[in-house]
């Protein structure tokens, strides 16, 4: 077969467009990603993924939030505790509601980031309004309270939840699904399949900003195929 190139048929990529939007060190795979570790029991799947996530955490620091879906989290606690995962980010029941919960987490992180951006952008204008005498402390609304610190009794610039906010970027989301083979989540759940297909586009930002928070998925399973599922 002969291949010919047409000079006039040039593909142009959108400016500032990157399928792997998260800044990733050269020695680690690009983010966001969908990773499946398949192997027999005791082959080191969980250890491999946990160490990979640890390497990302060492580079990304507190900008990284790790979610774990695993019915065996308790028995693997020593292994997973190295990742310093918040207990609220552990789902021990891999049911068919997990995809909806993960989508909600991504959407909530997008909304929190956009809200912080808005408050940070208009902080100076808000302070100027107060100093100009157009403010009645006895009539504070919900919007004003977001700037108010009751501990200092002062209006303050909102602090970023994650350091990456200061770089104009949302936090980085990882989800590690472990020992869930045979569960409704991986066996018969079409929502999980859709989640895997759309993982980079979760938590989409509105136009003209564009882009998305996204979520990397790490799945550990002993079997690679099933009837209509993922594992």
Would you write up a description of this structure?
- With 231 residues, the protein is α/β, with parallel strands linked by helices.
- The protein has a domain at 34-112 and 161-221: Rossmann fold, CATH 3.40.50.300.
- Helix content is 30%, strand content 13%.
- The protein contains seven helices and seven strands.
- It has helices at residues 45-60, 77-80, 98-121, 123-131, 142-145, 184-187, 190-197, and strands at residues 34-38, 64-69, 90-91, 148-149, 154-155, 172-178, 216-221.
- The strands form two sheets. Strands 1-7-6-2-3 form a five-stranded parallel beta sheet, sandwiched between helices.
- The longest helix is centred in the middle third of the chain and has 24 residues, at 98-121.
- The relative contact order is 0.19.
- The mean pLDDT is 85.
Report on the biggest sheet: 5 strands, parallel
Contiguous uncertain segments of 5+ residues: none
**How do the helices and strands follow one another from N- to C-terminus?**
EHEHEHHHEEEHHE
- The span between the termini is 37 Å
Tell me, briefly, the overall form: globular
Mean pLDDT: 85
Helix and strand content put the structural class at: alpha/beta
The third-level CATH topology of the domain at 34-112 and 161-221 is Rossmann fold
Helix content: 25-40%
Put simply, the count of helices is 7
Strand content: 5-15%
Query: What would CATH call the class of the domain at 34-112 and 161-221?
Result: Alpha Beta
CATH architecture identity of the domain at 34-112 and 161-221: 3-Layer(aba) Sandwich
CATH superfamily of the domain at 34-112 and 161-221: P-loop containing nucleotide triphosphate hydrolases
Radius of gyration: 22 Å
Number of strands: 7
Strand order of the largest sheet: 1-7-6-2-3
């Amino acid at each position: 077969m002969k291949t010919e190139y047409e000079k006039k048929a040039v593909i142009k990529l959108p400016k500032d467009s990157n399928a792997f939007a998260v800044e990733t060190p050269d020695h680690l795979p690009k983010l966001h990603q969908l990773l499946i570790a398949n192997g027999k029991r005791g082959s080191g799947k969980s250890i491999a993924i946990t160490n990979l996530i640890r390497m990302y955490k060492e580079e990304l620091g507190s900008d990284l939030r790790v979610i774990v879906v695993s019915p065996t989290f308790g028995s693997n606690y020593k292994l997973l505790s190295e990742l310093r995962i918040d207990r609220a980010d552990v789902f021990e029941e891999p049911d068919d509601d997990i995809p909806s919960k993960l989508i909600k987490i991504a959407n909530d992180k997008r909304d929190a980031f956009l809200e912080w951006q808005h408050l940070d952008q208009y902080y100076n204008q808000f302070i100027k309004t107060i100093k100009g005498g157009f403010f009645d402390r006895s009539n504070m609304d919900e919007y004003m309270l977001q700037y108010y610190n009751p501990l200092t009794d002062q209006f303050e610039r909102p602090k970023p939840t994650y350091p990456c906010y200061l770089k104009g970027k949302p936090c980085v989301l990882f989800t590690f699904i472990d020992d869930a083979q045979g569960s409704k989540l991986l066996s018969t759940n079409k929502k999980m399949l859709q989640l895997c297909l759309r993982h980079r586009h979760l938590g989409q930002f509105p136009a003209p900003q564009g882009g998305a928070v996204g979520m990397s998925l790490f799945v550990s399973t002993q079997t690679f195929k099933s009837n209509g599922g993922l594992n």
